[in-house]
């Protein structure tokens, strides 16, 4: 169950990062509210997962989900331009996150 909470924490990290961009410097009230809500839920789910998972495992996975998710949404939602070679390193990041999970013993 801790892994589910950690995954949700990562998803809500992507949510708050995306809605922060959409808030236009916190000038759009609804996106600002969703940003704050996403932050609260992200930290809540992370804190719940930390009851069973070590920090050294949960934190890099949480930030990795957020980093990859924000990059993908940036490309597809905001038309951010990412060099083709960057996708290689994104793939390495995903492989690293999977490796951390597989070798963690949790």
UniProtKB/TrEMBL annotation:
<keyword id="KW-0813">Transport</keyword>
<feature type="transmembrane region" description="Helical">
    <location>
        <begin position="27"/>
        <end position="50"/>
    </location>
</feature>
<keyword id="KW-0812">Transmembrane</keyword>
<feature type="transmembrane region" description="Helical">
    <location>
        <begin position="57"/>
        <end position="78"/>
    </location>
</feature>
<protein>
    <submittedName>
        <fullName>Multidrug efflux SMR transporter</fullName>
    </submittedName>
</protein>
<keyword id="KW-1003">Cell membrane</keyword>
<feature type="transmembrane region" description="Helical">
    <location>
        <begin position="84"/>
        <end position="103"/>
    </location>
</feature>
<dbReference type="InterPro" id="IPR037185">
    <property type="entry name" value="EmrE-like"/>
</dbReference>
<dbReference type="InterPro" id="IPR000390">
    <property type="entry name" value="Small_drug/metabolite_transptr"/>
</dbReference>
<keyword id="KW-1133">Transmembrane helix</keyword>
<comment type="similarity">
    <text>Belongs to the drug/metabolite transporter (DMT) superfamily. Small multidrug resistance (SMR) (TC 2.A.7.1) family.</text>
</comment>
<dbReference type="InterPro" id="IPR045324">
    <property type="entry name" value="Small_multidrug_res"/>
</dbReference>
<keyword id="KW-0472">Membrane</keyword>
<dbReference type="GO" id="GO:0022857">
    <property type="term" value="F:transmembrane transporter activity"/>
</dbReference>
<dbReference type="GO" id="GO:0005886">
    <property type="term" value="C:plasma membrane"/>
</dbReference>
<dbReference type="Pfam" id="PF00893">
    <property type="entry name" value="Multi_Drug_Res"/>
</dbReference>
């Amino acid at each position: 169950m801790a892994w589910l909470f950690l995954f949700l924490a990562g998803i809500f990290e992507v949510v708050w990062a995306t809605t922060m961009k959409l808030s236009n410097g916190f000038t759009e009230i609804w996106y600002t509210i969703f940003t704050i809500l996403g932050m609260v839920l992200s930290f809540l789910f992370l804190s719940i997962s930390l009851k069973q998972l070590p920090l050294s495992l949960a934190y890099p996975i949480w930030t990795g989900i957020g980093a990859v998710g924000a990059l993908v949404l940036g490309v597809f939602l905001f038309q951010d331009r990412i060099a083709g070679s960057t996708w290689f390193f994104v793939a390495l990041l995903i492989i690293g996150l999977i490796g951390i999970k597989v070798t963690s013993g949790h």
